[in-house]
Amino acid sequence: MIQDGTADFDFIQKHTNGACLVRENGHPLTQADFVAGGDKTKYAVANAAGEISFRGLKKNETGEMVFDEDPSFKAILEDVAPVKLVDGITIPVKTAFEVVKETAAPYTPEKVFEITGVEPGILLRIAKDFTNLKGVIDDGWYTSKNGTDVQLYQLICIANAMNGNIDIPGGLVVTVGAGLKIPSVSAGKGPNGETWQMAKEKRIDKIVYPEASATFKVALQAAVTGKPYPIKGVFFVGTTMFHREANSQELAEQLKKLELCVVQDVLPQELVDYADYVLPATYFMERKEMAGVKWALDGSIYLSDPGLTPPKGCEARHDVWILLEILRRAFPEKAARVGYKECKTAEEFNKYFDAFTNKGFNKFLAQCESQKPGWAAKIKKDIETQGWSTIKTKKYNQYPYHKPFGTPSGKVEIYAFQSFKNEAYEKAIAPISGYIPSPAFTAPKQNSNEFILASGKNCVTCSGLNMFTQPTRYLGDRTVWMNPVDAQRLGIKNGDMAEIEGIDTNYVGQARITVTNKVVPGAVFAFGFSGGNRTKHLVNDPEYQFVKEGINSHWYATGYAQPVFGNVANNSSVRIKKVRG
Asked: Per CATH, which fold does 450-580 belong to?
């Protein structure tokens, strides 16, 4: 796209940090480099005349972050003359766009073919279709593959920015929230306005992986090592760890080190086998819930009424009820500060818990009514008749045209300024990088019996459905997929049983092979959650012998986590040999 001149250079200049100036050492230049006492969060750009301007963020009169820049300043993307700094020194500079261009230049279609196996003609056709048809690469949500996922998603952002196809119809868009807020408990804040002093220590995963949204493996590692501080007990609430946490063998050893392991769940799964206590929970269909609709273009809210009730005599409780009862008995003053007193029946707890939902909904209705009389009645009618109501319709051309992203520059960053947040970041995550072989597993030998094992999921084999084990007998795919070229080389036919050995973990399992063109040569695929269930309550039952079929892809994963961000890789490398037909 750069070579052919088909990239959206106007978008790159205006709405990415591509025009920002960069030193020879890669650091961006800011106002502080040009003006004594200048702002280090305002980044320098230059025009064809060699004039310097600065782009940054500021708060407007309502407290919202907006862009602080001269919209008439036409910055150039290449060939900036050397600049004179505040200390009088003149230095050569490049733009971030030039760094991206130079980084990409060695990766010709022929070079990429050597790395990926994608033929040059196919690659060029896809690239031309992408730009000519204004394509978009979906940013997805499954960010745990090969240990280079931060770099992968950076490249996705760069490709979309090159096309300028962001927050416009048919492009990569920012979805809209409905604005419903249900009172809840967060750090130092209670549902009724209660406040308290939190401990000064950071959450354990934030110490090791400061940019992580959640990297649980740190807690279990601390159970073994005692670093960064010891973990003695863990509560697992509604999660199937052996299908979610890469490296099952390591996970099993870590669980054995815990002094206390408590599992709250609906039905048996492998984690239960390691629990000191199992507390029966209710399913989402057994409780009321109101929330915003996730992963949808428009902002909507929904009400989920209980479609089921726990059978008479069943001890199952709402997860929050279980946790609050434990809190009340261990630390009654902490339970009291969120307004919780002992609830002996589900009816009592539902009255307590649903009051927060009703409070949040009523406040939301009042806000809507104040904006447009009659709106509250319409929302209530929608909820009563169809169970959901659309509150906000998506408006395009918002980000990053008028509203900034959460990046240091507020723009789409084709060159990551976040890398320069501190020295540790800079060493761990480059602002842009070339090809990096997967650090998460040993690369398999080409044209051999070694393969990359990629894992994934579908709407049948996911954690939420897998616990209802019986349907997966008929719906789940517990086979390993292999390309016909590889299958022919190994003498494997469709349906043959094969032995799968982890190159890095040495774990050995068995699964039937599905020969299909849905995978590329050199790789095999298995669904997560679908096979290799070792739950003792199931595998010892004659009716559930099928759960042992197939493999759990996490048996073979090393558990590698990316520095700073903590993404744990799920893919691995394996050796495969035919066992029998």
From this structure: Barwin-like endoglucanases (2.40.40)
Cβ-contact 510, 500 below 8 angstroms: yes
Prediction pTM value: 0.90
Per residue in 206-220, pLDDT (tens digit) is: 999 999 888 888 999
**With b meaning 16 or more CB within 10 Å and e meaning fewer, what string describes 322-348?**
bbbbebbeeeeeebeebebeebeebee
DSSP string spanning 70-93?
-TT----SS-PPPEE-TTS-EE--
Q: What are phi and psi of 376, to 5 degrees?
A: -60, -40
Q: Which residues pair with 570 in a beta bridge?
A: none
Give the C-alpha separation, 209 to 195, whole Å. 27
**Chain-centroid distance, C-alpha 215:** 11
| Sign of the alpha-carbon torsion through 216, 219, 222, 224 | negative
Confidence (pLDDT) at 85: 97
- Cβ atoms of residues 130 and 122 within 8 Å: no
E strand spans, 293-373 = 299-304
Q: Render pLDDT for 178-227 as a digit per residue (tens, 0 to 9).
A: 999 999 988 899 998 889 998 888 889 999 999 988 888 899 999 999 99
Residues 6+ apart with CB under 8 A from 422: none
Continuous segment of H or E residues that includes residue 65: strand 65-68
Comma-separated ranges of CATH 2.40.40.20 domains in the chain: 450-580
